[in-house]
Design goal:
The protein contains nine helices and no strands. By secondary structure, the chain is mainly alpha-helical. Helix 4 (63-76) crosses helix 5 (81-90) and helix 7 crosses helix 9. The longest helix has 21 residues, at 116-136. It holds the Pfam family Clr5. It comes from Talaromyces stipitatus (strain ATCC 10500 / CBS 375.48 / QM 6759 / NRRL 1006). This is Clr5 domain-containing protein.
C-alpha cells in the first residue's frame, strides 16, 4: 500500500470551488462552505494547491476562455502581441509576453513563416485574396494600415509588407499591367 495521504474528495466540486474563488470568495470561506454544505473537512492550503493545479486564478480566466479571447484579438481585431497584452489587461487579465507566446504556439498561432516554400505559398494566397477583393471593389482606396486590418479580420495571418506587396501586384493584375512586373 502506497504511503501518504488519501486523495482529497474535492475534485468533484471543482466547478463550484473555482467559480466561488473567481467571484471573490476567500479560501477560508470556501473551506467553510465545503464543510457546511458537503461535510468535507479540508485544510485551506489543500484548496489553494488544488486551485493552482486547476489553473484557476482571480486575474486569469480558465485556459479555454483565455485561448478564445487571444484568438479573437489575434484574428478578428488583428492585434500584435503587445496590443493583445494591453487589451487583456484592460479586461483584468494579467499575462506576460512569454506566457502569450507559449499559448499562441500551443493553439497554433504562429507569426513567422521561414521556409521559402511557405513564404511563396503565403504570397500566392495574398495575391489571390487581394485580386478577389480588388475585383469586388471592397478595398479600393485602402491604405496599408486598413489593408492589413481588413485581411487580418478576414483570417489571413500575414505580415504588413506582404499585404502591401500583394495589393500592388493585385492592382497591376486587375488593371492589365502584368507585363510591367
Amino acid at each position: 500500500m502506497p504511503a501518504g495521504r488519501p486523495p482529497s474528495q474535492i475534485d468533484q466540486y471543482k466547478q463550484e470551488i473555482s467559480t466561488s474563488f473567481q467571484n471573490g470568495q476567500s479560501i477560508s470561506n470556501i473551506t467553510k462552505m465545503l464543510s457546511d454544505e458537503y461535510q468535507i473537512t479540508i485544510h485551506p492550503e489543500t484548496i489553494r494547491r488544488r486551485l493552482k493545479q486547476w489553473g484557476v486564478s482571480r486575474t486569469n480566466p480558465g485556459p479555454r476562455e483565455l485561448e478564445d479571447k487571444i484568438k479573437e484579438l489575434y484574428f478578428k481585431q488583428g492585434l500584435r502581441d503587445k496590443e493583445i497584452i494591453r487589451a487583456l489587461e484592460r479586461d483584468g487579465i494579467k499575462i506576460s509576453q512569454s506566457t502569450l507566446t507559449t499559448i499562441q504556439l500551443w493553439i497554433g498561432l504562429q507569426r513567422r513563416v521561414v521556409k521559402p516554400e511557405d513564404i511563396q505559398h503565403t504570397d500566392n494566397i495574398v495575391r489571390e485574396a487581394v485580386r478577389e477583393q480588388l475585383n469586388s471593389g471592397h478595398i479600393e482606396g485602402y491604405g496599408r494600415g486598413h489593408l492589413y486590418r481588413f485581411f487580418r479580420i478576414q483570417g489571413y495571418n500575414i505580415a504588413r509588407n506582404s499585404i502591401q506587396m500583394g495589393f500592388s501586384v493585385g492592382k497591376m493584375i486587375s488593371t492589365g499591367d502584368e507585363m510591367n512586373m
